[in-house]
Amino acid sequence: MTTAGDIMHRGAQWIPAHETLDRAAQLMRELGVGALPISDENERLCGILTDRDIVIGCVAMGRDPSKVTAGEMAQGTPRWIDANADISDVLREMKEHQIRRLPVIDNKRLVGMISEADLARNLPESDVAHWAESVYARTSAPTTH
């Protein structure tokens, strides 16, 4: 059985909810990623911040990224998967919620992230194609996470 822990990108890092968006953008650049899980004061997942969120939700709205926090951008119920979950559960979670990045949690701590690239590297082409069709082909407005 292939698990979320088997295919995830290890070394994911939180951005604390109180941290500003300019710092989040710097951390994204340093890590070479386009999304960061947002943690509350207890290091629990409270959202995901994407580079697109910073541009569309802050900069394009005329707001100052040095004054807006990651927590202010956290919307909705954050989705995650247990590190021991089967890959079929990963795909189901991502499809049902139309998400492109999924934090992986083990013992209530962030241990990695699963992205489209991780799926492409670890799944048969037909599974990736079916996943992409279900996430991108919906008529409702997709999330950026």
Can you characterise this structure?
The protein is built from seven helices and seven strands. The mean pLDDT is 89. It has 145 residues and is an alpha/beta fold. The radius of gyration is 15 Å and the shape is globular. Helix 5 runs parallel beside helix 7. Strand 2, helix 2 and strand 3 form a beta-alpha-beta unit. Strands 1-7-6-5 form a four-stranded mixed beta sheet. A three-stranded mixed beta sheet has the order 2-3-4. Helix content is 38%, strand content 21%. The longest helix has 12 residues.
Topology of helices and strands:
Layout: H1 4-7, E1 9-10, E2 15-16, H2 21-31, E3 35-39, E4 45-50, H3 51-57, H4 70-73, E5 81-82, H5 87-96, E6 101-106, E7 109-115, H6 116-122, H7 125-136
Parallel strand pairs: 2-3, 5-6
Antiparallel strand pairs: 1-7, 3-4, 6-7
What descriptors fit this protein?
single chain; 145 residues; alpha/beta; four-stranded mixed sheet; three-stranded mixed sheet; 7 helices; 38% helix; globular
Uncertain spans: none
Output the strand order for the largest sheet. Answer: 1-7-6-5
Measured by DSSP, the beta-strand proportion falls in 15-25%
* Topology order in helix (H) and strand (E) letters: HEEHEEHHEHEEHH
Helix coverage percent of residues?
25-40%
Give the overall silhouette: globular
What radius of gyration results from the CA coordinates? Answer: 15 Å
Main sheet overview:
4 strands, mixed
Oligomer: single chain
Average residue-wise pLDDT: 89
Structural class: alpha/beta
* Individual helix count: 7
Distance between the amino and carboxyl termini: 26 Å
- How many DSSP-defined strands? 7
